[in-house]
Write a structure and sequence with these properties.
By secondary structure, this protein is an alpha+beta fold. The chain has two domains: 23-241, PmbA/TldD fold (2-Layer Sandwich); 250-481, no CATH class. Helix content is 22%, strand content 38%. It is built from eleven helices and 24 strands. It has helices at residues 23-32, 88-107, 131-135, 139-154, 218-221, 227-241, 258-269, 275-279, 342-348, 381-386, 436-441, and strands at 37-53, 56-74, 77-83, 123-127, 160-178, 183-201, 204-213, 250-256, 299-302, 326-331, 334-335, 356-357, 366-367, 371-374, 390-402, 407-419, 422-428, 431-435, 445-446, 451-452, 458-460, 464-466, 468-471, 474-481. Strands 1, 2, 3, 4, 5, 6 and 7 form a seven-stranded mixed sheet that branches. Helix 4 (139-154) packs parallel to helix 6. The longest helix is centred in the N-terminal third of the chain and has 20 residues, at 88-107. The chain is globular, with a radius of gyration of 24 Å. The N and C termini lie far apart (51 Å).
Length: 485
């Protein structure tokens, strides 16, 4: 097995002894360095990854990164430092460095952070399912699975020219201790699996891609289908798209699949309600208590995996020691809350929502989403199709972008024409665009069947974060970038 360093990991010398729970050590150091607000966060991240392409193991790696991040609030200013040594003297030096950084910054600042709000902070041990199960699974068995699924994908059709398959699991252990009462130890594991099929015919090339990500064990990871089913779906889409026509463009009535609902709620809505973006002037600023969507839309962000097990952004405690429950952002079309860390909650005069997250120990916590979704409604998919005279049923998010105004453009994998309440043949995927809140105002039906469908990816905002997003099918209006648009 090769030990390699990936683009977002760091190889460091690990402790010889196995660390179980460092919160007692952190508490002892904190007691010896009292004064002002101090937050100590131990974070160990271990990643195992396997990737196979064209029958060859391309990557098989294990990486570890661990240490302690230190934040202080002094003179109304934050200071941050970190150490990769879990030793009292090293942590004390990091506290001193963070205090020095805060004092230096304070001399150059005219504005000061508000005192942190009082809140019930997490204490005790918080373990998520799957950690022990996956840590005991031999990596040789994982390599065999990935090799087998990649070979099966290539064998699905003579039109499949190449395939790739990958599996990754990230084990995280954290100890969070603060001078105002948090003392929490958490463990979780986030596995993800993906398969890609490349089909070609007469110079035409199409791609099929299926992925699944979760927080939890094997059952959570493959809740939407076994590895063999993901392989078959990826190959079928790649082959079918070779002969699929292009759809028409223009403003259309559409049904958005759970994956597209997920990317819409995360990229085009979720970021606009992160309180740091709100303070910078996002489209959601000043709109609390106003209608931003139709009465059919309730949109939430939760540390808990709701409606379906294993959502990829789940966590019980955030990286400030705040319990990570559900925040209802939009209720029945009315904007009701932003997403907060402790600092922004103090600024807005509300309670923190448990959205402070740091990618690794040497990153400061930022306001980040967890699992973002539109809550299910009452319609069946069949009823939603039957209600459309002329439109499209759009499946699968591929890529996209959105800005602080909620304007977005996303790619889709496949489109099915709907005529007179009947679903027609497959069309090639299209780009969809619009303004998120305008799209949400156009929602007239919300499906009853729910799915998480973004757990295999990362969100980027200065640093990475594992998130998930999803929902039911929704009926709305968007602008399609078809061939004749």
């Amino acid at each position: 097995m090769r030990r390699t360093q990936g683009p977002h990991t760091h190889m460091i010398q690990t402790q010889a002894r196995h660390l179980q729970d460092p919160t007692d050590l952190l508490s002892e150091v904190l007691a010896q360095n009292a004064g002002g607000f101090v937050e100590l966060r131990y974070h160990k991240k271990k990643t195992r990854a396997v990737a196979v392409e064209k029958g060859r193991v391309d990557t098989a790696q294990v990486t570890e990164h661990s240490g302690v991040g230190v934040r202080v609030l002094e003179d109304g200013t934050w200071g941050f430092a970190s150490t990769d040594r879990l030793e009292a003297s090293a942590i004390e030096r990091a506290i001193q460095s963070a205090r020095a950084a805060a004092r230096a910054s304070a001399r150059a600042r005219t504005e000061r952070s508000d005192p942190l709000p009082q809140v019930a902070l997490a204490r005790g041990r918080f373990d998520s399912d799957g950690f022990d199960e996956l840590s005991q699974k031999p990596i040789d068995a994982t390599i065999e699975l990935v090799l087998r699924i990649e070979a099966a994908t290539r064998a699905q059709s003579a039109a499949i020219q190449s395939a790739s398959c990958s599996y990754r699991e990230v084990f995280e252990e954290k100890g969070i201790v603060t001078s105002d009462g948090a003392k929490a130890w958490t463990r979780l594991v986030r596995p993800d699996f993906s398969v890609t099929a490349i089909a070609s015919k007469a110079g035409e090339i199409q791609r099929g891609y299926e992925a699944s990500g979760a927080t939890g064990g094997w059952e959570c990871l493959f809740r939407s289908g076994a590895p063999e089913q993901l392989s078959e779906r990826a190959a079928r889409v790649a082959v079918d798209l070779l002969s699929a026509p292009y759809p028409d463009g223009g403003r259309m009535k559409v049904l958005l699949s759970p994956s597209l609902v997920g990317i819409l709620t995360h990229e085009a809505v979720g970021h606009t309600v992160e309180a740091d973006f709100v303070a910078a002037g996002s489209v959601a600023a000043g709109k609390l208590g106003t209608r931003v969507a139709s009465e059919h839309v309730t949109l939430c962000d939760s540390g808990v995996s709701e409606y379906q097990l294993g959502a990829g952004g789940s966590l019980q405690v955030d990286d400030e020691g705040v319990l990570a429950g559900r925040t209802t952002i939009i209720r029945d079309g009315i904007l009701t809350s932003y997403l907060h860390d402790r600092e922004s909650a103090a600024h807005f005069g509300v309670h923190p929502t448990g959205n402070a997250r740091a990618f690794e120990f040497d990153n400061e916590p930022l306001i980040r989403m967890r699992n973002t979704y539109i809550a299910p409604g009452t319609s069946t998919l069949e009823e939603m199709i039957a209600a459309i005279d002329d439109g499209y049923m759009l499946e699968g998010a591929t890529n996209g972008q959105a800005d602080s105004n909620g304007e977005f453009m996303f790619g889709t994998k496949a489109a099915y024409r709907i005529k007179n309440g009947k679903r027609g043949a497959l069309n090639r995927g299209v780009n969809i665009s619009g303004t998120a809140f305008d799209v949400l105002r156009s929602v007239d039906r919300v499906g009853r069947d729910f799915m998480w469908d973004m757990g295999s990816g990362h969100c980027g905002k200065g640093q990475l974060a594992r998130v998930d997003a999803g929902g039911p099918w929704i009926s709305c209006e968007v602008l399609l970038g078809g061939r004749h648009a």
